[in-house]
Design a protein that fits this description.
heterodimer, A: Rossmann fold, OB fold (Dihydrolipoamide Acetyltransferase, E2P), 5-stranded antiparallel beta sheet, 10 helices, about 35% strand, elongated, B: mainly alpha, two-stranded antiparallel ribbon, 2 strands, about 70% helix, disordered C terminus, membrane (chain A), ATP hydrolysis activity (chain A), Sulph_transpt1 (chain A)
């Protein structure tokens, strides 16, 4: 089911939670809404689900206007951040709930409901736990029950609010792979909200990055990482060094080095001040770049993070990511040459 | 005095927790405290002795005295006092009032708690204060309010005395007349409903607030109607808390004295509830009979206490996190 969101507005008092959101979610894609807390990502998800009303704008489900539909009529599968399982019902009863509340001709016979519940239990790999209560399950198991319950009503879209937010790191990684696989199996259009960029980049087909109620960038994970559309995306997705530079014709002078523009024309109109953004892993050791002195080095798992001070310009510090074996070769105080292989430039603040 | 048994029940519970937390269980020898953060042994024992002494003197002793006094004239006199027609009428009236009051406050309480806990609106704090009003207002004042409204000099008296003629568009002439309220069953029920209103609402509010509304929203997103969400999700989640509130409400309804005393008129055999009957007997120097009837109230309090303790023990986690009662 394709979902189109047009000019969506939503205010809480004077605070604009959603500020003119336009977004097209493709049929069958797995889309991540990524942003810091307060960016409006959960509000957007709840407005799509019909759990909250927008102040303006339209939502189309498969071309049909769904803005006026109630949450029941929208038939979306919604997985809440803390799962919101019915605590007084067993796992099987939880999953059957959406089928049991149907009335009239829509109502399924009990045997068909039971068969569907069995099928869903095996889909989420909880075959033997149908008789348990939510309180007797682990976090990861509850998550899967919540998913099965949402899938039971054969939703047109699946919406997940911080699906891995309440889980341990190890369980997160396992469930992430499992959710991706489930998505491939069901082919459902799926939108999930997260504040964890790693999760969004690893799992999603496309990522919408939100900040202050606006979509800053809508792109594939690779694009979002390699070609961030704004300084916010640069700093929110991954780590980045910000360096002050200035325009020199159609080139950029930064830290005593003159660089060609990243791609396309330079931004920022006539402003002479430019900010150059370079990721730590996009700086390579070599000649022809900045001269720098190593300040210190910090080992972080498989990586080595080195802080170095540029010798040219205003002596700004940058962070560089190097292979671990570089530690001996470049002790603090030693000189290194740093070549920026990829960077972005935006108008200076 | 019997009318205070409702208060006694709450007193027992209020005193329990400190007694539990102070109980020393350390095997260490001498006067050294069990752990660096606890008091010396003699302080612990002193506090425990004080608490137990207080419990004995103010709660257990009066209860025992009630039973002792009731049985002083022998079991025959005890039974005679209870089987006396006025006593039986008082028992019936008390049960009837409780049977009307509790369901009313069940509906009001659930509705009020649901409104306050699951919704945000302007004036919410004022509404919560209003719900608490019966806790703050003296029951006698509450009773007087009903006299002022429905009594022989009250605002609504013409409605009760003569009624009013209304001409409505479709029904034509309608004669509206209220039944007698003060010095009759409706007045007693009104006064009791007023006094016991907060018990169920107050019990449910923190519980429902703590549970949030995510489960209801989940039910709606799965296609349930609001009514289905309420019956299948909201109500089962609060059932033990609700039972707890009903219990307290019922105990208070049976034991209520002040407000009922003002509106009842003390008509023997007709508007006397159990607590009022006890008072009348006592004032007439029929001590044995007074205490015999009082044992009924004391027994109802004990039953309440046992049920309440069982609920707290068995379903403590599904009751509200913080108890004020």
């Amino acid at each position: 089911m394709k979902i189109e969101i047009q000019n969506l507005h939503k205010c809480f008092g004077a605070f604009a939670a959603l500020d003119d959101i336009n977004l097209e979610i493709r049929d069958g894609e797995l889309l991540a809404l990524l942003g810091p807390s307060g960016s409006g990502k959960t509000t957007l998800l709840r407005v799509i689900a019909g759990l909250e009303h927008a102040d303006g704008g339209r939502i189309l489900f498969g071309g049909e206007d769904a803005s006026r539909l109630t949450v029941q009529e929208r038939r979306v599968g919604f997985v809440f951040q803390h799962y919101a399982l019915f605590r007084h019902m067993t796992v099987a009863e939880n999953i059957a709930f959406g089928l049991k509340v149907r009335r009239g001709r829509e109502r399924w016979p009990a045997a068909r409901i039971a068969a569907r519940v069995e099928q869903l239990l095996s889909l989420v790999q909880l075959q033997d736990l149908g008789g348990r209560y939510p309180a007797q399950l682990s976090g990861g198991q509850r998550q899967r029950v919540a998913l099965a319950r949402a899938l039971a009503i054969e939703p047109r879209v699946l919406l997940l609010d911080e699906p891995f937010g309440a889980l341990d790191a190890q369980v997160r990684r396992d469930l992430r792979g499992w959710l991706r696989q489930l998505h491939v199996q069901t082919g459902l259009t799926t939108v999930f909200v997260t504040h964890d960029q790693e999760e969004a980049l690893e799992l999603a087909d496309r990522v919408a990055i939100l900040n202050r109620g606006r979509i800053e960038q809508l792109a594939t994970p690779a694009e979002a990482y390699d070609r961030p559309a704004s300084p916010f995306v640069y700093s929110f997705v991954g780590a980045v060094n910000r360096l002050r530079g200035r325009r020199q014709g159609d080139r950029i002078e930064v830290g005593g080095l003159v660089l060609p523009p990243p791609c396309g024309p330079l931004p920022g109109g006539d402003s002479a001040e430019l900010d150059v953004y370079v990721r730590p892993e996009d700086l390579r050791l070599g000649e022809g770049g900045w001269e720098a002195v190593v300040v210190d080095a910090q080992r972080s798992g498989p990586r080595l993070r080195v802080r170095a001070r540029l010798q040219g310009g205003q002596g700004q510090e940058v962070e560089v990511e190097l292979p671990v074996d570089a530690q001996q070769a470049h002790p603090p105080g030693s000189r290194v040459g740093l070549v920026p292989v990829r960077y972005g430039a935006f108008a200076g603040a | 005095m019997a009318p205070q048994t409702g208060g006694n029940v709450q007193g027992v519970i209020a005193l329990d927790p400190p007694q539990l937390t102070m109980a020393p269980s350390a095997p260490t020898v001498g006067a050294r405290p069990a752990s660096p953060t606890s008091e010396p042994r003699w302080v612990q024992w002193l506090l425990i002795a004080a608490a137990i002494g207080f419990l004995l003197a103010f709660l257990l002793l009066p209860l025992l005295l009630v039973f002792a006094e009731a049985l002083r004239g022998g079991i025959g006199a005890f039974l005679a006092a209870i089987r006396e027609p006025d006593a039986l009428a008082a028992i019936r009236l008390t049960l009837l009032v409780t049977a009307i009051t509790v369901p009313l406050n069940l509906v009001f309480g659930v509705a009020a708690a649901w409104l306050v806990a699951k919704h945000e609106f302007r004036g919410k704090r004022i509404l919560v204060s209003l719900i608490d009003l019966p806790f703050a207002v003296s029951p006698v004042v509450a009773g007087l309010v009903f006299i002022l409204i429905f009594g022989a000099h009250g605002w609504a008296w013409p409605l009760i005395d003569e009624g009013v003629q209304l001409s409505l568009p479709l029904l034509g002439q309608v004669h509206l007349q209220l039944p007698k309220i003060v010095f009759a069953l409706p007045g007693i029920v009104l006064a009791t409903v007023f006094v016991t209103f907060p018990f169920i609402a107050r019990e449910l509010m923190p519980l429902m607030e703590q549970q949030g509304s995510d489960e209801e929203l989940a039910a709606l997103s799965l296609g349930a109607s609001g009514w289905q969400a309420f019956w299948r999700v909201t109500l089962p989640n609060i059932r033990w808390g609700l039972l707890y509130g009903v219990l307290l409400c019922g105990a208070r309804a049976m034991g209520e004295f002040g407000a009922v005393s003002v509106v009842s008129g003390h008509i023997r055999g007709r508007t006397n509830t159990l607590p009022l009957h006890v008072e009348i007997l006592y004032n007439e120097y029929a001590y044995s009979a007074a205490f015999a009837v009082a044992t009924l109230l004391a027994l109802s309090a004990l039953v309440t206490l046992v049920l309440k303790t069982w609920l707290e023990w068995r379903h403590g986690e599904s009751l509200a996190a913080t108890h004020r009662h």
